[in-house]
Amino acid sequence: MELSGSTSPAHPMNAPRENDPTELDRFKRDIDLVDYAQRQGYTIKKESRRGDWHHLVKDDEHVIVTRKGDHQVYLNTGDDRDAGSIIDFAKTRGGDGHGLNLGQVRQQLREYLDGAPAPARQYPTQYATPPDSARLNGLPVGDPEQARQAEEERRTRLISEVLGVKKELTDRSYLHGRGITDATLESPAFQGRIFTAQQNEHKNTAFPLYNEHGLASVEQKNEHYKSLLPLPKNGIWVSHPTAGKDTPVERVVVSESAIDSLSHFQLRHGQDPKNTLYIATSGTPTEAQVALIQRVIDKQQPQEVVLANDRDAGGRQFNINYLNELQPARPLVPVAEQEAYREASRPVEWHATSDKYHTSLKVTFHHDSAEQGAGQVQQLSERVEKINQTQQDGPSLAVEIQRSTEQATIVRLTVARADTAQLEVVAQELYRQREQLRPAAERQQEAFLRVDYPLAKDFNKELEYTAQGLSAEQIRAAAQREEQQQESERQQRLAEAQRQEREQREAERQARREQESSPEAQQGREQDDKHFQTVLGATAAEAEQRPARSYRSEQEAAEHTAQFVHAKDAGLVLLKEYIHDNPPPAGRKVDEAEREDLRERARYAEAAAGVSLPTASPTEAKTATWTVDELEPNTTGRAEAWKAILDNSGYSMQTSQVRSTVDEQGIRRAEFDMTYRNDQPDIAIIHAIVTNTNARAAAGKAQYAGVSVMEPEADRAARQLAAEAAAIQPHNRDRSLDVAVKPGVEATTGDMPAAGPSAPGSEKLVIIRVDEPASSPGERGQAEAVQAALTASGAKAGEVQSTVDAEGIRHSEMKVSYRTDQPEIAQVSQALDAAGRQVGNHVVEHGSDRAERQAAARHSQVSQEVAPQLER
């Protein structure tokens, strides 16, 4: 039995109780977020004199760390959704960029506080000394209003430092260099919307960003220079209407930069002189900026919105999302005693995300029945198939159904970033489909949202080519050549990086060879080989007088190897490993105080739920939900592998079908239910499986990363009470159940065999891996020598499976089986131990199996020594 707060090798004495909420508060309070970020590669670019805020930079990411109450918080200035405490910072930046779950965050932050180096796993970060808590405690702590005022003062000070006293455009040299004429700059649309920022002798062109509260930030530009103040990106650059202030706006043009807006005006406005308002987001639009653009539309009520983003993967992604998010001016309607904007219905929604290589489109269909959803998915699949058929190099768009219910179906489409245009075609059709599905009163006027791509990469580049006198066709050809040149340079950089990586690997291999060829290393290998050959020679001599032991039948061999092979292929561990490896003391006797503690936990869980229920019957089915996350994007199968292991375990729990979703990063998150009954004789085994799985996941075991079992506290406490009195305990169970048919109700009263030397033996499986230099064809290597010696000892050694890597190292693997009750168990055990000590060999064996094997060998040796004396 395992009580909360009890200790085991997986839970040190000072470790907090699993999922203890006070531990998260301790992390927030005791960890210096600035110090933690610096260890993650961030550097301090600027900080206040009092130390109450810091500006951190890593690559192109700018993070502001400030104080909130008794802990620090951060904000990514380029993404207003990336903000929060040290918990959020660690969760979004761990896992080699793929993120961590909460259990992994707990483990990583525990290691940081303990000052110990983090173990090597998919987020290989090393920590040194623990943080200085005195520095944290010395930071000023104020109320929320004081913090808001301090932030407002900081924003005002930063903007004032950039703009100076006079907010005027006194230096036009940078804009002239970008092809912007004085006629454009003197248009009523841009008066007071572009300034010259001067700090000492340096002058930059400044574009102010506004929100509903006024000036929010400033973007500065110059030749080979671009900077956005380290403030929340919750403002937009917005012009006046081209016809002058306070005139009715007919059109809104949205682009990525103010330079592109000026260029678009200079290229297009004369051809279609509608009264136009220009908006720019200074790069990737944040959620706050999109909401602000919609508020501008609500206020100005334009007839159309033109999306004038770049002609590249990023610009197409922005357009895809604008198509979903922007709508005509929303009416204000009374809600209670206030007013709110009335949103149009969204029978279809979508959102595009991207990584370095791919762009994904998540589409959600809302419907009245599963049949209607199936029809919508079928229609989308047929459209994707037609798009794929037009591709010369074969299908490029991949479609995956992530989730489907009676009310909603979620589909994910993925394509290489270079082919993002294909997703834009899909988004345009979804846009038209949504308008058809909406009620007539909610439909947008035709062509309210329109995409206007430049002939070149962006509108400023098109302006440059136009100034050179190039025609439209010539501009397209020049843009294509430039794109090909950039792609060629990118490929050259990639090839150079790969070459440097190969050279570094070769240098590491050379250093390893020199180390392995040293006299000390060679002497050690010779000693190990000599000892190994001595042991194997002795076992081979004894084996000549007796036949080799084998399985009792081929069926028995298949039954005992099937589960192991499945677990190995899935990258997991055997069920019996996490039962026997440090099992909870489920078989020990508990005193009445502990019993009462468990009952109190169950009663408390009921009260917390606000429901008064009668005492549950032991025969009622209980449900625990297993959640299994994939460790890499665009992979699958972990949840099914864990479910198969539970299904094949031979114990009385049952599992449901796997349910799964895929997040925006491409990580599949799956779950399934496990049902069990507390009156089953193997309930202690089931209890050990659940508790040990959660314990190993919390301890950071690599095989358990992303795996957890969730259940009500009352169910856990009730199961723990049932486990202590169960007939089958982890230490006395019949191992034949590991691959046998699950016990039925009629078999629940059967007696279990007693544990000990007199009990029947069991079949064991071992994997032996051998790494050695590749030998000549026909020459017997070290792997074959190990195979022959183990067979001679009485074990059953399978075929040697080998591969040779690029470095000429042969990697071999073989399966070895034996029984703990066979007469030769002492020789088998001795040979396995000797093989494990030989350089290049690795014996993969469960710790509990090794202990049982060695105990059986000692018992066999004693019996052989005593038997002759008894005969006399």
Automatic annotation (TrEMBL):
Lineage: superkingdom? Bacteria
Tell me the segments the record calls region Disordered: 1-25, 122-154, 476-561, 837-872
The membrane spanning regions, by residue number, are none
Q: Where is the composition biased (Basic and acidic residues)?
A: 145-154, 479-516, 523-532, 543-559, 843-855
Pfam families, sorted: Toprim_2
The identity of this protein, by name, is Toprim domain-containing protein
The organism of origin for this protein: Hymenobacter lutimineralis
